[in-house]
Each structure stands twice: as C-alpha cells, then as structure tokens.
Specification:
Elements (H helix, E strand, L loop, with lengths): L7 E4 L3 H11 L4 E5 L3 E6 L2 E7 L11 E6 L2 H12 L4 E2 L4 E3 L5 E6 L2 H5 L5 H8 L7 H5 L2
C-alpha cells in the first residue's frame, strides 16, 4: 500500500533552481537530493519531486498549489516572493511563479467569511475584483 503521495513537477532543465527558489520561500523546507534528472525537496514538510523532463510539457492553471495563510503578513510574504523575478499576478488570489507554476494564496478565514449569510455574497463580489487578497477589506464589506 502506498504510504506517501507527492507531486512530480516537470521542469525544462531548471528543477534544481526551482527547488532552491521554493525552499527559500517556505519554512521547514530543504533540498533532499539532486541526481541531475530528478530533484527531491520538501516544502514545509511536504515532499516534492522536480523532474528535468525537457520542454515537451508546460505548467498551466489546471493544477495549482493552495497556500492557506493565517494573516495578511503571510499572504504578502508568499504573494510577493512567488511573483518575484518574472512571476505574475492573476485574480482571486491566484499567481504564477517565474517557473510557470500556479499558486493560490488565500486567507484561512475565507471560508468562514463566504459562508456568513449576511455578508457572504459581498465577500465573494469583493474578492472577485482582487488580485492579492486583502483580509481587512473582506472582513469589512
């Protein structure tokens, strides 16, 4: 029986650079091994594999990694680190890093705010206009 499930990310020769980049952003992260073809690394204790597979496949938004943040400082940290050096912003807390990997940087309170019967729809309308989430704005709609 499989004991662990982890993602394999297909890179075009820059898996080590990606692993180093991600390990610099996330706490409790480390490079485990680099064979040249395959790089194993952990991000906050979660195992990842980077494969230097060539240019046949590209990342797209069909797969993204969700980062649930407890406060605005965490949102800002991840957002600005991930879009640095060639990444880009999208809408509703989505962004892409410089390697093309998609991320969702979301506040942990979002589900609670959206399920509020009085304010839920206003919260949704507010964040649909946002790129990076602003927790205070969402709480005060």
């Amino acid at each position: 029986m499989t004991k662990q499930l982890h993602p394999c990310l297909w890179f075009n020769g820059n898996a080590r650079a990606a692993a180093d980049f991600y390990c610099s952003i996330f706490p409790n992260s480390k490079l485990i091994s680099d064979s040249g073809l395959v790089v194993y690394f952990e991000l906050n204790g979660q195992l990842f594999m980077g494969l230097n597979g060539g240019d046949k496949f590209k990342f797209n938004e069909a797969v993204s990694f969700v980062i649930t943040c407890s406060d605005q400082a965490e949102i800002d940290h991840y957002w600005y680190k991930l879009i640095a050096d060639g990444g880009n912003e999208s809408m509703c807390g989505w962004c892409k890093d410089k390697f093309g990997v998609s991320w969702q940087v979301v506040p942990s309170v979002l589900g609670e705010l959206m399920s509020n019967p009085e304010k839920g729809q206003k919260v949704i309308e507010a964040f649909l206009k946002m790129k990076k989430f602003d927790i205070e704005t969402l709480k005060n709609v």
